[in-house]
Amino acid sequence: MAFGRRGNLGSWPKPALGNTVLTRYAHSIDGRRFRFEGPLEDALAIGTYVQIDTQDGRSYLGQVLHETVVSGGSDPGARARLIEGGGVMLARLTDGASVRVEGSDVFGEGVVVEASTDVVRSHLELAWGSTSSLTLGELTTMRGLSAELAASGFGRHGFLCGQSGSGKTYTTGKILEQLLLETDLRIAVLDPNSDYVRIAELRPIESTGLTDHEYADLQERYASIASGIHVFGGIGAPLRLQARFGRLTLEQQTMVLGLDPIADPEEYNAFVRIVTDIPHEDYSFEDVLDRVRDSFGDDERRLGMRIVNLGVSELSIWARSDEAAIREELPGDWRMVVFDLGSLPSDRERSIAAAAVLGELWEQRAQRQPLLIVIDEAHNICPQEPSTPNQALATDHTIRIAGEGRKFGKYLLVATQRPEKVHQNVVSQCDNLVLMRMNSVADIEHLKRAFSFVPETLIEQASGFGLGEGLVAGKIAPNPLRFKTGLRYTVEGGSDVPSTWARPSN
């Protein structure tokens, strides 16, 4: 029997098999959440959108967040055939529009059915309002409906995590190319694995899923964007990832040299006197060495020996006097810059470069230019327990940006395979979560504690996500969305080692 808005639910017979009700019935006592019961064979996936039609003719859109199997009758030996569940009420449906639910939206009985694509689409479109939307892929809880992110939500810090092989890097690239295409937000990427160095290049048309006309339009739009993308890398790169030693803070300069003001008072003091006497701030490491060589004091001699023994002056990261550093190489109209840390020859240089880049970006905060700072493999750049002084400095910079950056237009997107290893003072400031497959029970429990605004039952689903599947929640979504990442338009820089070794031998 069909259920109409003007029907009288109390007068209808409830179809049953023995003691099992064959229709899902719901109620709400606070106008915010609902509970329901129904047949086990008609269970709903966690995250499913449902429409609730009440006895008095009202209709609501809800989302299922939990379900439990219960006994199907009074007989203790009866086979369990019922489910009890609940969820959140997202909106009241009135004349094709979604209206915010109020505490007065209580009801005693209603029928629960899966929501139609049109109803969910209308709700999501109204939720976005005037903000640009970014197409991430497709909703897995409603096939045929795009998973869209709110561009304005990236004005809050975000956390993206997934274990190796989950599609984390591919999805991050999809988000970045959508931000490039649909917004004017500048982006800076710390790229330890060289995964985003080819983001200025479009894939061949056959791997994008676009028609000839759509691809031609994409090429035209992306041409101007690509001209504003700059990649800084190691030796041999067209743009060198090099820092001007004098632009580092005194704290980082002494960290590079392993100088401690208490443990090494003479050498520390000699270094401070030398750099203070240099008449300009953009001095190179060569300038420091020249001053050391021109000095004849015992403290300066020991300082020079320290520099030689540590091999610091030979690191490829230092821009010489006649070479340009990052700041000189970037034009004023740049759109995206990728710092290819993976192209540097040693962990030491990568650590120094990460701290230098983050320090430079923070120093530019007075410009109040909106900037998304993407930190990939964040467990190595801002770990909970830094293992080197430069890693500790990079962590301090990240914590400062996380705590104070938003008022200066500096936003973080922190990506990692190891959520427990990222410093908690960074994670705690993130208002957005993009979660992909995560099998570790410890990691899932950590995420449930860290992101308490996301229903635990949805985070628990992460262990069952397939390749490219995930959950997004926070300011970038009107409600938690289950998604599968769509095809990327740009080239992914990194790649796995081929598994041809596993093929059967002849």
Describe the protein in words.
The termini are far apart. The chain has 506 residues and is of the alpha/beta class. It is built from 14 helices and 20 strands. α5 packs across α7 and α9 runs parallel beside α11. It is elongated, with a radius of gyration of 28 Å.
Short description:
With 506 residues, the chain is α/β, with parallel strands linked by helices. The chain has helices at 117-128, 168-182, 212-226, 250-256, 265-277, 285-293, 298-310, 326-329, 347-363, 378-381, 389-404, 424-427, 441-450, 456-460; strands at 16-17, 20-21, 25-28, 33-39, 49-54, 59-70, 82-94, 97-99, 107-114, 133-139, 146-150, 158-161, 186-190, 229-232, 336-339, 371-375, 410-416, 432-436, 469-474, 481-485.
Uncertain runs with pLDDT below 50, 5 residues or more?
1-21
How much of the sequence lies in strands comes to 15-25%
The description of the largest β-sheet is: 11 strands, mixed
Secondary structure: number of strands: 20
Total helix count? 14
Please state the average pLDDT score: 87
Query: Separation of termini?
Result: 64 Å
Principal-axes geometry comes out as: elongated
Helical percentage = 25-40%
SS content category: alpha/beta
Whole-angstrom Rg: 28 Å
Question: How are the strands of the largest sheet arranged?
Answer: 11-10-20-19-18-12-17-16-13-15-14
